[in-house]
Amino acid sequence: MSAATGSVRTSAAAECSRRRAVPRAAAADAGSADAGSADLEREQLAAQVEELRAEVGQLRQALETRPVIDQARGMVMALAPCDAETAWQVLVRVSQHSNIKLRSVASALVAGAEGAPVPKPIRKNLAAALRSLPR
């Protein structure tokens, strides 16, 4: 075998080896891309699950506090007298001006009807809200 023939074979073998390596590298890249895609999908699903858990918690709390808020709305309707939407706006105004959550304002008003003292900021803002209603 001549030196020229040996170098051609070596060169051909190297070229063949490179050709086989390219698909393997591409397959490895595709595998890592699939793994990266799966990781991204898992992260998105985990974020979505957390978002849904938070929403479920909020809905449960809303279901628990809704009856108390409706009772307080009825009390405002009897005091004012006014319709349900106006009573809701009164409760919202009292909540905002007192810087107290609406469900806590409603609880305090209902408890006040049962004999518990209503906190002064709620009393003051409720009186102001009721005075501001058109007669």
Topology:
Layout: H1 3-79, H2 84-98, H3 102-113, H4 120-131
Helix pairs in contact: 1-2, 1-3, 2-3, 2-4
Provide structural commentary.
- The protein is mainly α and 135 residues long.
- It has one domain (3-131).
- 86% of the residues lie in helices and 0% in strands.
- The chain has helices at 3-79, 84-98, 102-113, 120-131.
- The longest helix is centred in the first third of the chain and has 77 residues, at 3-79.
- It is elongated and about 70 Å long.
Summary, kept brief:
The protein is 86% helix and 0% strand. By secondary structure, it is mainly α.
Figure out the total of helices: 4
Distance between the termini: 115 Å
Helix content: over 70%
Q: Spell the H/E element sequence.
A: HHHH
Total strands? 0
- Globally, the shape reads elongated
Overall mean pLDDT: 83
How many structural domains does the protein architecture include?
Answer: 1
Largest sheet features: none
Structural class: mainly alpha
Radius of gyration: 36 Å
Beta-strand content bin:
under 5%
pLDDT under 50 segments (min length 5)? 1-8
